[in-house]
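Troubleshooting log. The previous run stalled partway through. Resubmitting the same two chains, unchanged.
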Amino acid sequence: MSNHLPVRTQAEMAELFAAGLTTGVGKPLKHESADKHVTGEAIYIDDRLEFPNQLHVYTRMSERAHARIIRIDLSPCYAIPGVALAISAQDVPGQLDIGAVMPGDPLLAENVVEYVGQPVIAVAASDLDTARRAALAAIIEYEDLEPVLSVEEALSREHFISPSHRHVIGDSTTALEAAPHRLQGELHIGGQEHFYLETQVASVMPTEDGGMLVYSSTQNPTEVQKQVAEVLGVPMNKVTVDMRRMGGGFGGKESQAGMPAALCAVIAHLTGRPTKMRLPRFEDMQITGKRHPFYVQYDVGFDDEGRLLGIQLELAGNCGYSPDLSNAIVDRAMFHADNAYFLGNATITGHRCKTHLASNTAYRGFGGPQGMLAIENVMDHIARYLGKDPLAVRTLNYYGKHERNVTHYHQTVEDNLLDEMTAELTESCEYFKRRAEILAFNRTSPVLKKGLALTPVKFGISFTSSFLNQGGALINIYTDGSIHLNHGGTEMGQGLNTKVAQVVAEVFQVGIDRIQITATNTDKVPNTSPTAASSGADLNGKAAQNAAQTIKQRLVDFAARHFNVSEEDVTFSNSHVRIRDHLMTFEALIQMAYIGQISLSSTGYYKTPKIFYDREQACGRPFYYFAFGAACSEVLIDTLTGEYKLLRTDILHDVGASLNPAIDIGQVEGGFVQGMGWLTTEELIWNDQGKLLTSGPATYKIPAVADMPCDFRVKLVENRKNPAATVFHSKAVGEPPFMLGISVWCALKDAVASVADYCAHPTIDTPATPERVLWGVEQMKRLKKTRSLSTETDTTEQVDA
Amino acid sequence: MIRFLLNRELRVEDRLDPNLTVLDYLRQRARKTGTKEGCASGDCGACTVVVAEPQGEKLQYRTLNACLTFVSALNGKQLITVEDLKQETLHPVQQAMVDCHGSQCGYCTPGFVMSLFALQKNTSGHDPIKTHEALAGNLCRCTGYRPILAAAEQACVQRTSDQFDVAEAETLARLKAIQPETTAELTHDEKTSFSPVTVADLAKLYVTHPQARLLAGGTDLALEVTQAHRPLPVMIYVGHIAAMKGIDVLEDRLEIGAATSLSDCIEALSTEYLEFGELLHRFASLQIRNQATLGGNIGNASPIGDTPPLLLALGARLLLRKGDKTRVLPLEEYFLDYRVTACQPSEFIERILIPRATPGQLFKAYKVSKRLDDDISAVCAAFNLCIENGVVTQAQIAYGGMAAIPKRADACEKVLRGAQWSEETIEHAAEALAYDFTPLTDFRASREYRLLTAQNLLRKCFIETTASATETRVTAYV
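Second attempt completed without errors. Output:
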């Protein structure tokens, strides 16, 4: 890169040029930070060197689910040495509300508290322990108000954060009445704690002109910039947010990273001192929202084969105390209530229930998993009712390619891969052979029972708030040929920076080690969308590609002009440029271009085409394309204790033309295991006062190493470019694989159903903990007993007759 | 004063707060921030570090949770953290994690790297069961573990000598030179910890400081500081008392020093009672078992500790000491009420006496929890039976998670004793469990589930002893 590199001959360069690039798109490159992760050199916000006058913040949380605050006395806080400042809502200089989309989230509670864990006051001190002790010394008095703690109560009282919304296609009422078979049921779907290993954290430094430099572990730097500006009452241009990496996000840092950043900013503003706030795990789990629990009611009509004729689904999301992102989340649940299936005549209603719990928020899948789980439960229910293999009912109801292919929100499902993928997976995982083996095993095994399920995923890609589908990037090339890359997406472990760098490497045809990936920063790329909705690579990769192409075009124009050749004569490969038959290094061309007064810096911008959605009419094309997947899981349950083990999982997943297969497989495997955790051991339990009892990893159990399948086979669909014009025809991968975990829940139900010879559908709410599995088994045992009793009676009657 | 090696550097510390955890020491004092805080409660493994200590003429490398370990435990040891592995190039376990794409967000990664480092030091070749055991206490939210298991395999198969192997003799000599020979003391801000090296000194100190908290592994006690934020003004650390560590196999009993780590108990207990050993493999995580002691698990008197039901069923006894007086107490007389024991002020458990297995004796142990690994039992059960000619001649049954204390199932035992070992008897005995226990509902399980599972475990025990071909354990599948 420098002038001191050995000079290569034309022949040497020709050889390198012909060899081609090994670090462009489609290559299984390691994560850009892998070496730093494994050595502990990767710096997270809490690892940053602290200043001598650094303040640490602790927030005192509400102990009541719903109460009026009648008194706050902060004076006892100051009796503790080391305390710099104690504040309550009235001390916030600017706007108190930090609600991301709609107001409703005060930075500190004002007048009322609406959940146990809500920040009420904040104390800044020389260390966290002092801040905590001081915060607990404050006097806060409450007068209790009636809380609403259950989603059913909120639903029956229409205690909503916003109005219900409905998707309608055809006439479900008439279809249900006319259907040969009809089933009703309900399902409780549990929430999920993100359990990012790095808890919420921010660190700020006051700057001149009343501004703030903010280091925030956030998926949404622009949102944090706005929140900080608003609580300070300053314009956004005074605030810079810098985000190098998160120790996991999963949606939990999309809107809710703002609180620690905004509190730090207020305190730094009032004290003039650098300020940090890191939530200890217990506080993080109490304060921040989780995946929305849902309560689902269904009424479904179908024919003798199990084909859906009409369905009415009521999806009630438990939003917690404030709107946050719940409107869009319940919408996405509704958009995915079909999953892979043509619903026929459908009425899908989404309710946004307000409860006095932490405000539930984005979490990988963003409501999609809950909607999908509802319809997968319906599939199982129909299959048991008709005595069919659930896979047969599922495939029968798949969207068609040319007919039966319009969703309940009137988007046509195009380029549907599920028929082929299901056929391939059924074959490769030997579904039918294993089904027979499992039936045989279950006949002879009285205590342990096996279950099998193959479930599909169809997930819509694009933010359903269409305007968010935009991305930006900034590329600077320096005179030594080194490249500085910045884009609006955030790195939370998903490998986004690696993928975007591969895109830029591909465009310039340079090695990826030439590209310096830098922290996402609001003064480099402004007005960014959150890194969410699986959109990171689609939006920012495309924006970076556009930025790179802009500069590349300038280089081509320059070289053509300079060497007096045509544009087609200028080609790039493997860090070299060929100008007709003359070769030079990339950096040599850069130096020439600089001397030739060519701008070597460009922004890039991208917005997703084709998408629109008319919410009034509940009609449109909210998704640019769909990502598909299918998983087959086999489980073993213990009918005496409900304990279980995941024996094998086969996955076939569609990522279009993969930008990086190693990273994509990591997303598929990790998403699957996280989805499985949501549906199995991850149980959130609140007491009758609304306090979360499972507020740490001792009581809230995410999957550990023993929970992964004993035999785990993951494959990406090959040779299937995304027909949509996405970045190098890849597909988004962050969220879709999460829902492959549904296969585990369905397999557990399959194992339980074996207890009653597969003639009944066990009611097993999620998460299907060992306890719920055991109750499912007991339900099946009772049914079998009743049935055999009634069969005996029938026989007797026949004999009597 | 305590002395230890921070990797290769000798640290002599005499002003440390005895309530300071190794994690805070590393991150705040030593400014080594590679070791992460994920939960500060020993449940996620992000803070995993490795401690090396002399074991004869070798170094023994063990993982522990830095967030649960007070600095006093480092005395005379070498502390190795993630920063210490890389030299010119990545350490082979680090390289394996990179090659296998074992990190995504990277926050749990230092902990995994240290668990893999210790695994590599303690195994020859690739052993999937040991790998699984080594990683059960490390949570990763991103990868789903498959690539980390691949990294473990690569690191163990391609094990080469590293800088720690090269320096082993030297490190051993340096550590031997700083082994504590007298009581070490750390005092700061009216907080003190004593680390005696003899039982007599411990007994004396405990008489002088009856208000002191005894610190063994500290895997539960440390939570008072890190989670409940209650300082511990006086602690007496028992981890440096050689005479309270180790196992004597006598003719009629095992005598286990109360400060013996659970990891060090597994082999001897497995030899005697296979299912005791198997259950210990599911006791918390390796990091915890390396620290936590058998005496601590009893002395803590939690109703959900996993060893007390097993020890109760086996008829274990405790050798208690106060000053220079000792007494032997049957374990079932030790637990009085929720976290209340028969220990008098200044009295402590010195040894645990466990009868040896006898021919014809059946011992079955079960742990039922929400998650298979590293989880606290909803119900734990142990059955110690003797069946002669189809008749139950001896039945000692105990449960954890079913009452305020770990408790024998008296009514159930009574039904069984002298009865035919038959399905009919089992059903009567299962009914009797409802008289023995009125379990509570909490976030681990409902009372109904606990009772039904307790009954079903008895049924399972019956099936396993009468229809051995029947598969009954999901944990047999790995």
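Takeaways: The radius of gyration of chain A is 28 Å. Chain A touches chain B through 89 residues (CB under 8 Å).
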